[in-house]
Amino acid sequence: MSEHMTFDAPRLSVPDRALSSARMKVGRAAWAARYYRSFSRDAVLAIAEAVARAGYEKAGHFADLAVAETGFGVVEHKKIKNELCTHTLLDHYRDLDLVTPRIDAERKIVELPKPAGVVFALAPATNPVATVYYKAMLAILSRNAIVISPHPVAKSVSVAAARHLAEAAEAAGAPSGLIQCVEEPSIPLVQDIMASDRINVIIATGGTAMVRAAYSSGNPALGVGPGNAVAYVDPSAGVDAAARCLVDSKSFDNSILCTNESVVLTLDSNRGNMERALRSAGAHVCNEADTDRLREYLFGKGSLNLAAIGKSATWIAERAGIRVSPSARILVPVVATPGQDDLLFREKLCPVLTLTSAVDFQQALTFAKHTARRGAGHSAAFHGDDTARLVRFSQEMPVYRVVVNAPCSQGAAGFATYLPPSFTIGTGFAGRSSVGENVGPQHLVQWTRIAYGKDVPADLSGIDLSAVSTDRATARAPVAAPPPERESFDRDALRQLILEELRSLQGAGK
């Protein structure tokens, strides 16, 4: 009996293949990062150009795959976002030199750039391809390697997009393993990799729980929080222009961006004009009954109905039992009293824009501050020409971006303003984040500063900095990185397998 029990007992504990594969990707990335950190600025820009070109060429293809896989958003709009994360992003940072050492002879300081090393990046389901493009470009420009963990809902298109960029990078001279993507993401896998001592920095874009986990991992992290942007329309604004901005912004990619407006606020004296202008711009302004139906559909169980995320206004209206025109671009529920904690004042990643009004600017500002705390540190919008109110609004709102007379979705993300183009919007101290800016490649490089004493003679002209970066106009030929990714067992598991097999052979010989 004992022999049968021994024979039937499992003889091998098979390791988690997905986790083993992810750990090997991190190992390859560490090798690639060490090799890439000495590339010259010309070599870096050559690789970035190749990746931008490759990403742009397949922006539409991956947009179509993203919508098909996730069910979120609009193909044409995702194509635009993907394209913006190629040449437009590169052009914005082209003159930012994160490679060349800097010498300040007057202050007797020499600055040496130090890339982070291996970046572990989380990508959300809402903007899967644009985020892959964007974070890969940031890593390239800062001479880092990157391992991307996609959302499980968007893993196929994310992996395909990352592989496409990696191939373009390697063809341009980048080391193998510079851009990689986890094929089978899971919460345990992400937590394990985030805590790895081979990860040098984490860029966390996603839900609050995952961002907090990144900060608790023990590794440096750049995390961002959710948005809940309030748009204030002052009586000094051109109401028709403001309404067009709001509808264009809220309907863009079915409002899947965290920078999109959640609530539009005006004064009581201006609300009638606002409703008229919104209708003219393509919005369906809800009556009281429609507002109640929409609130029940979106928040009937206390939190946002996930089925509505990234769906069209007509799709949502049909399921909420609201009759709308087939041409309706957004839905506008109207909440008369801004002081109440209505569920419709929360973030809505769908084309639903809540309209409310206040008796005066002070009440509007009080309500706006209260509402923005649910997306603290993120973004807001101001429509109007009253600069005194604009400054007061910007100073008192707990946000780090205020978009003026432009769509907030595109403006806060840097595509309709001169803010840095970004798909990782830092929420700073207000949002419990380590960065309050739009995250860029400069956040992935730190500098060692060689500082001579103020009263000590120093001749900096003879300092040789050639070892900091190679003096090549083009990148090196691609070099394969060890170990091979197809290996699925680590060494401990292999030892265990051999021992178990030896034991079984000894038992068979008895």
UniProtKB/TrEMBL annotation:
GO-annotated molecular function: oxidoreductase activity, acting on the aldehyde or oxo group of donors, NAD or NADP as acceptor
Domain spans labelled Aldehyde dehydrogenase: 26-269
SUPFAM superfamilies: ALDH-like
InterPro entries on file: Ald_DH/histidinol_DH (IPR016161), Ald_DH_C (IPR016163), Ald_DH_N (IPR016162), Aldehyde_DH_dom (IPR015590)
Ligase recorded as keyword: no
Pfam families: Aldedh (PF00171)
Sorted UniProt keywords: Oxidoreductase
UniProt keyword annotation of Disulfide bond present: no
Domain of life, per lineage: Bacteria
Alphabetical list of PANTHER family matching this protein: ALDEHYDE DEHYDROGENASE-RELATED
Protein's recorded name: Acyl-CoA reductase-like NAD-dependent aldehyde dehydrogenase
